[in-house]
């Protein structure tokens, strides 16, 4: 059934429990992989050198493990839709739960139109003959039918897939990520077999003794690693839909597995690009991960395979964001932190239909707006992501004191919780401190303020209704029935 009454008469919308362990891995990895590895591999080589860039991703991934373990403990303990909304509500109450969920929703929702734009642009790169005349410009971005139609068509297909059922969308995600890694295995094998290890020298981009060059090269790249590794945080959003036979602690395992697999993927890509041709040359190529196969080996088919793999990455990211964002917004609506309209569940498919349609509508606006207009929006969304990581780690620490008897099937050591909070705090500070390499610009802070200005009145309106007791709200958000 789609709805189940509690003892106070409140009705808590239920989602279907059908997601297996492998699909949680696919959900997280589908977002982690994305398309950045095709565009930015040259930047990583330029800033860090081959070994510096690989070590940066290895160390950056290891730094995220404590954060992932905080997520693992709380997700296994509170396997409900919305993840961070539930964690922060139990630890800090309604207002912090709203701020955390709405900030993270900004990160999820605003990425989707960027993906629908990129789908059309990437198809033009794969098949240049399909490029059509420019219809209009938005800033420096040209909008064409060849950039509009592919993103709209794939976006509508994925919206339909998510609307029809969780099993359909997660099964598609699993098959797509399997195909992506199969293609990756092919072109990286070509690079490792045909490449020359001599192309890896010098190992670091910075000059001087190794104890000077190595840290400088690693630091130059490691500041961006968390943004490319984000995606493991999507797993808690769909935790409520775990299959009935899956133990809760497997959710924590899925989060850590996603982080480790993601960092290994990026290390392999950097190695493949660097070994194919001298990296000081490949780092100057446009879309270097694909271009090296033409420039070094004359393999046009391999270059196209890289771009097709990147297209799969875009699709898995978009599908993963539809799943994660809709569950997050659904949880805010179900818990009385946003209008209840967002909590409606399809009576037959058992999916959060209105939340899916809302996220889908935002994503389909992307191809009409253009990349230039969206770029600062996407950049500012990283602050919401980092803030949610920090609040989650603080929630894990606080709940050790306020809810010591809460069942924790995936329990981690207390020092790990504090290490996760420290890492997450550093990520936030990198974006807000003056002179930081990741500091956001004024326009990006203004965009964040505008997003909050939209959400806060909706939150205030919902609270003004005063139709939920504290016990009822806890039941709706956490699934804890009132006495």
SS content category: mainly alpha
Which sequence of SSEs, written as H and E, runs from N to C? EEHHHHHEEHHHHHHHHHHHHH
| Mean pLDDT value | 91
Helix content: over 70%
* Radius of gyration from CA coordinates: 22 Å
CATH-level-4 superfamily name: Amino acid/polyamine transporter I
Work out the strand percent. under 5%
Uncertain runs:
1-8
Overall CATH architecture: Up-down Bundle
Shape, please? globular
Q: Helix tally?
A: 18
Task: Write a brief caption for the model.
This protein is mainly alpha-helical. Helices cover 70% and strands 3% of the residues. The longest helix is centred in the first third of the chain and has 37 residues, at 41-77.
Walk me through what this model shows.
With 483 residues, this protein is mainly alpha-helical. The protein has a single domain (15-465), classed as Up-down Bundle (Amino acid/polyamine transporter I). The protein has helices spanning 21-33, 36-39, 41-77, 84-92, 94-126, 145-164, 166-194, 210-222, 225-229, 249-276, 279-282, 288-297, 300-334, 353-369, 371-402, 414-432, 442-464, 470-478; strands spanning 3-5, 11-13, 134-138, 141-144. β3 (134-138) and β4 form a beta hairpin. It is globular and about 65 Å long. Mean pLDDT is 91; it is low at 1-8.
Draw up the topology in text.
Layout: E1 3-5, E2 11-13, H1 21-33, H2 36-39, H3 41-77, H4 84-92, H5 94-126, E3 134-138, E4 141-144, H6 145-164, H7 166-194, H8 210-222, H9 225-229, H10 249-276, H11 279-282, H12 288-297, H13 300-334, H14 353-369, H15 371-402, H16 414-432, H17 442-464, H18 470-478
Antiparallel strand pairs: 1-2, 3-4
Helix pairs in contact: 1-7, 1-10, 1-13, 3-8, 3-10, 3-15, 3-16, 4-5, 4-15, 5-6, 5-13, 5-14, 5-15, 5-17, 6-13, 6-14, 7-10, 7-13, 10-12, 12-13, 13-14, 15-16, 15-17
